[in-house]
């Protein structure tokens, strides 16, 4: 068999990708398939589902609702919540990129013996628990908290900073939670950068910005893309940090779906929401992939 | 590579050693709220009966129900709130334990011995009960005192705007609004739901936040002056902040109780019954009360209660407020749907 | 890969201060949490004196220690398994285009996109349906699934843009594929693999929702334990156990670094 694999590139590829696909296939796709079935069922009187009765109520309620007099109207509530989560994710991804890129560059420039150490250093804080880190941020960001107190004592501010329970606090907290997920992929990409290329650019008269834009960033691009995916997508489902640091006055997709399996006990609707999200994200990814493919084929033409 | 393999081997060895044991007879798996059973009490139980207790935690009735509904087994004892007990019974998720026949059941104080959802105590036995009201800092409010009404919460005095916190709990906030407006909290009437929504929307800008975590710290640190809170938490606030007071709003206050239930398919039902019976003993119930800050349902436990609990009206409810208590109810799915819609609209 | 000549770091003068700021941002809450773990007072916002007694409380709390241990074991196994599968897959998808490429990318992305609560309930339903008894193993399996994409993406990013001729040259130099892999490909991929493994580890350590639903009796993990405290009130032992986890992680990292140094 080893011989067969050595000669047949296609089989080799399948053997390499196969195990991962099978694990995800069996333990993720099949369960999700079950959930797809749940989403077209009728909700149970006490929660759960009626396994025998089909109903498209869940999907309908995503877009429509019944007014007091019984007429069907378009319901934008859920769309608004979706839009908010998407917006927040986008902002967090950009912030993480701005903060993370220079750091990844710094790490890639270190001598070899320090680089592995830095990889760990970036992630050690995340051995603590999410809740605990958020509580620490609350102590730091509250009025009369640690930062406010320090600023006041140094005479820099005369009024409370009013950061906690605002979108700024959510931004600080969320970006914080996803830092390693942006830094490490970029670092992995940059680390193989041959800095002689950069030196060459400098020798040819480029200034720092040019060298950065023309040499470093394009080479780091796979890492930037990977990092952006690892931040943007999980961030869509984030709700603990926004709730704790934002005062819970607005709902995220995560809260909404969680509630369907919690207090509201409406499993089909929760499943339908999840599939709506899945469709949106996978759809966007496919459009992006198609554009890239068209772009490269055009470039080649 | 070798390092990784060695690590993996060590991990697997550890897991096999620490993994869940084969169903031994002298074991009990309790599924409970966190910090809800005193560790010392459990240790004493283990010593007196020789049964080894393993404690797992959940953070809400609903997630516990969802897990059991999806088919999870392995737990011998769960501690759901009253309305959840009814759901569990109706869904066939509770074992018949005939609590009435337990030797210590005679200690249970009425009316807890005949709960509406389980009148013959076939499936459940009471543990702790409490209320969800309002805690305020008497030094931070105008006049040093607030009236016993939900008005102070939904339409706070101008000086307190921005210093009020609501629980981030769909059910509790809705219930409070329903009491204030005089509606049935399980209403499925769209018109009433609309009125509740309007009340909540008017309140929202005056709130500092919706938050169910860190309620005790927040009050003690004097970040806010008024907090929607469970009475046991209120008691803990009062222990550190002497000026804290608890309100029993006249329009109605939610009464909830947590009960011991044995889930269907429990591997060690007899041990579970032994534990339940043991918890119905006055001394043990009092120890639990002293730890959690909530009142128990066992007659004769008063003599063992801490003075702090006995003298705190938040926990030891004055009799004149008894008429304000509103036991919890499990609402129809239409009602729940309305409630969820209102909550979503409030926070969209 | 050795770098000839002087360190070009000085050319990008802004990088060092920015990186310093980054690490300050990263460790600020950690410093707060460490300080708090020594606060005598139960209430986090009031400091009444230095005391190590919360550590005593933690060490006496068997349930909490068991939960922490479970978390570390699960994270170790899941991240190792996930990284292994992800490495293979990353190599498999790297050399050029192939049929079904988008499908593979889609499947890979699934654990990232589907909201955790949905995955959690779905996986539980599945386990119950097939009769897979809940326990520590079920958590490990569920965690491995989402560890795969978290490890895959950094490794993939690493491979992309790598000179493919290196692979062919290695195949020529070494008699069998395994040696070529071990001596050339693996060291080249190492920064990606390490990044992937480490990310998978922390994502597993922090997972609450999925763990909650698929854990068996007795398999409580630390996040479940801590989140369960919210209703009654998170107690300061949580700061102490987090500090202990930090110390453990630093110890493990230092150990591996020293071993690495000794090898050289």
Structure report:
The complex is a heterotrimer of chains A (301), B (348) and C (264). With 301 residues, chain A is mainly alpha-helical. Chain A has helices at 2-7, 9-39, 57-63, 77-109, 112-123, 130-141, 146-153, 167-190, 195-203, 208-236, 240-246, 253-261, 267-300; strands spanning 41-43, 49-54, 64-66, 72-74. In chain A, the strands form two sheets. Chain A has a two-stranded antiparallel sheet with strand order 1-2. A two-stranded antiparallel sheet of chain A has the order 3-4. The longest helix of chain A has 34 residues, at 267-300. Chain B contains 13 helices and eleven strands. Chain B starts with a helix and ends with a helix. Chain C has helices spanning 15-36, 53-60, 62-94, 101-113, 116-130, 136-159, 164-173, 177-205, 209-214, 222-228, 237-263. The radius of gyration of chain C is 22 Å and the shape is globular. Classes of the chains: A mainly alpha (301), B alpha/beta (348), C mainly alpha (264). The interface between A and B is large, with 33 and 39 residues.
Structural class of chain C: mainly alpha
The percent of residues in helical segments of chain A reads over 70%
Strand content of chain C: under 5%
Most extensive interface: pair and counts?
A: A-C, 109 and 111 residues
Name the helix and strand elements of chain A from N-terminus to C-terminus, one letter apiece.
HHEEHEEHHHHHHHHHH
Widest beta sheet: strand line-up of chain A = 1-2
Portion in helices of chain C: over 70%
User: Care to count the β-strands of chain A?
Assistant: 4
Distance between the termini of chain C: 15 Å
| Rg of chain C | 22 Å
| Tally of helical runs of chain C | 11
Main sheet of chain C?
A: none
- Overall, the morphology of chain C is globular
Major sheet size, sense and barrel closure of chain A: 2 strands, antiparallel
> What is the string of SSEs of chain C from the N terminus onward?
HHHHHHHHHHH
Query: Terminal Cα separation of chain A, in Å?
Result: 40 Å
Morphology call of chain A: globular
Mean pLDDT of chain C: 84
- Uncertain segments of chain A of ≥5 residues (pLDDT<50)? none
- Count of DSSP-assigned helices of chain A: 13
Question: Total strand count of chain C, please?
Answer: 0
